[in-house]
Amino acid sequence: MGSASTSIDSAAWSWRQASVPLAVVGAVAGLALVGWLTTPEFVTYRNVQSIVRSAALIGIIAVTMTGITMAGSFFSLSVSQTAAMAAIGFAAFMSWGWPVWLSVLVTFGIAAAVGAVQGGAVALGGNPIVVTLAVGAVLFGTGAWLTDNKTVRTGTDAADWIGTSRPLGIPTQTWTFILITALAATVLARTRFGRELTLVGANRLAAAASGLRPGKITLYVFTVSSLGAALAGIFTAAQFGQGRLDQFDGADIDSIAAILVGGAAIQGGEGSAPRTAVGAVFIAGLQNLMVLRGFSFGVRILFVGLAILVSVSAFTVLRNRRQMT
Amino acid sequence: MRSIQRVDPTAWARLGLFVAVFLVFSWRDDRFFTTNNVFTIFEGFAFLGLAALAVGVTIIAGELDLSVGSAAAVAGIISVSVVEKIGLIPTVLLATLIGIAYGSFQGYLIYRLRIQSLVFTLGTLIGLRGLAFIISGENTVVMRDLEIARTVRRQLWIFSPFSLVTLACFVGVALFLINTRFGREIYAIGGGRQEATAAGVPLVRPLVMAFALSGALAAVTGALTSIKSGSAGPAAFETLLLPAATAALIGGVSLLGGRGSVFGIAIGALTLRFINSGLSLGGAPFYILTLATGIVLIVAVVLELLIGRPELRARWRRWRREPGLGLRPRHQPAG
């Protein structure tokens, strides 16, 4: 696991060190068991595939945002607006007759700039919550202003394959979710950049004292998160042939929930991309099970909230206990 | 401890911004400074000010309550459902009590579990929203007797019962924060948690107090706003955090905790209302208001970064070691 913990004996594997990852795995196993016992259609290949598919977009946003949390900048509250803006931008570029590759490229370029601005502001000392809240509002306002708060259609089916094709019977979104998780896991746990990022999150001063540049890393993680949100936006715009401003309402809260259920430490320095992905799948699975059981919308949200409360409380207790010894 | 009663040195700058915004809009539009428009501004202030006060109190305590919007929605639905049976004043009192109970429970759990409020209140933000959908049956709850709604928004010169309640809340919270031991403890744990605990402040008390205040104020916001409009929807107040935090921050509440005043929050809320009201009179659609709020928030953040005051730099150095906003090293449980 990529939980490069900062405790003294991080080399030695111990139950204490593994408590958070084990808790995440245990939660998923518990959900699968309850589903299997109560609802026969829950644990079938078809249904599991549909759970992962429904987790894919939030998963992509959450996995790419995990770097922000691990680097000690909490999270971003502007990803839903970034994704929506990317969807609108991509749809507009396509409708202007641009080729697919150019539309994708320009959308990513704009998203990277938006992310870098936020990362820069946070690196200079801005509070990440407030900076991203403000930028999210500006993105929403600008988007509504430019589009007159209307739906933007691509007007062409040239990009449909991005959102609707199914290589080997699995949707592109799911493939991308899996690939991005693997890529992020490798970068965060196996590369120099990932280790630097973890150190910056664990102890900013120590990182700066040992010659790292926390500001630069902050800039990168916000840019990556913004790119991930833009990718989700492009997928949606390509799939439905349109971009709308309210398409991603609540996506920021959902992806933060996935990160937290995946056991990342909000103080930074601890977390992992695969665990965040599991968090996203867990929430989607819980939702799916409750839909199959015929729970109403309100009850489902209430239970998701309770699941988050229970898991973050459990992780905090486990972590505090670990630190005391 | 006496230092918190000193006037914030930037208060004059904020007051200046407030007067400038006011003058610009009253100069540009004759309708701006009329009894009716000032009444409208105060109505908006009543709503925004209460929400800003709710968010501001927890920021002063070095925490953040993300769940205010959902709490307001739940309180709004309960209030609209019962107000015709038990009357206006008992309803508002009931909402307040529910808010206090919810807030103190949340504050106690945050203390007991030694958990970041940012993380915990994200869970309650989602959970309470679910509760709002459940108790409303996923529909907008409406009042049949609109006479009660009219009572709440009846115009008394530039005030209404709603804005008068808000002003009373402001005075009450100000007196509480400045003059009681509990209030000073909230400032103390926000400004320097370790120092405060070392000095013998029991953390549980100010934490429970701050979240109880935040819960109560959110509940009153939800109750009065919903009763005033005669209806309460389960998805209401979803974007409450943006204007509330903006008003608190331009009012001088520091995200590092421990700094900010109730008077400043009032000025902040009024400034934001002036801007919104001025833009609305100019016929701007709702999203321009969001855009303006976002820009104001960015300006506030940049100003706070740029003002190169030495104490701010010292705080910044300390923030890099122990980030504010509920991210100070957690306290040890008492006893």
Explain this structure.
The complex is a heterodimer of chains A (325) and B (335). The relative contact order of chain A is 0.21. The N terminus of chain A is likely disordered. In chain A, helix 2 packs parallel to helix 7. Chain A contains 13 helices and two strands, in the order H-H-H-H-H-E-H-H-H-H-H-E-H-H-H. Chain A has 325 residues and is mostly helical. Helix content of chain A is 73%, strand content 1%. In chain B, helix 3 packs antiparallel against helix 4, helix 7 packs across helix 8 and helix 12 packs across helix 13. Chain B starts with 10 loop residues before the first helix and ends in a 14-residue tail after the last helix. At the A-B interface, helix 5, helix 11 and helix 13 of A face helix 5, helix 11, helix 13 and helix 14 of B.
SSE blueprint:
The complex is a heterodimer of chains A (325) and B (335).
Chain A: H1 15-38, H2 45-70, H3 79-95, H4 100-123, H5 128-147, E1 152-153, H6 160-164, H7 172-190, H8 192-202, H9 204-209, H10 214-240, E2 242-243, H11 251-261, H12 273-292, H13 297-324
Antiparallel strand pairs in A: 1-2
Helix pairs in contact in A: 1-12, 1-13, 2-7, 2-10, 2-11, 2-12, 3-4, 3-5, 3-10, 4-5, 4-10, 7-8, 11-12, 12-13
Chain B: H1 11-28, H2 35-60, H3 68-86, H4 88-113, H5 117-135, E1 141-142, H6 146-153, H7 161-179, H8 181-191, H9 193-198, H10 204-229, E2 231-232, H11 241-250, H12 262-281, H13 286-306, H14 310-321
Antiparallel strand pairs in B: 1-2
Helix pairs in contact in B: 1-12, 2-7, 2-10, 2-11, 2-12, 3-4, 3-5, 3-10, 4-10, 6-10, 7-8, 8-10, 11-12, 11-13, 12-13
Which structural class is indicated by helix and strand composition of chain B? mainly alpha
Figure out the total of helices of chain A.
13
Q: Tell me, rounded to a whole number, the average pLDDT of chain B.
A: 82
Order of helices and strands of chain A: HHHHHEHHHHHEHHH
Rounded to an integer, what's the Rg of chain A over CA atoms? 20 Å
Q: Which secondary-structure class do the elements of chain A indicate?
A: mainly alpha
Estimate percent helicity of chain B: over 70%
**Unreliable stretches covering 5 or more consecutive residues of chain B:** 1-7, 323-335
Principal-axis shape of chain B equals globular
Arithmetic mean pLDDT of chain A: 85
Distance between the termini of chain B: 25 Å
Strand order of the largest sheet of chain A: 1-2
Distance between the termini of chain A: 22 Å
Rg of chain B = 20 Å
Task: Identify the overall geometry of chain A.
Answer: globular
Count of individual beta strands of chain B: 2
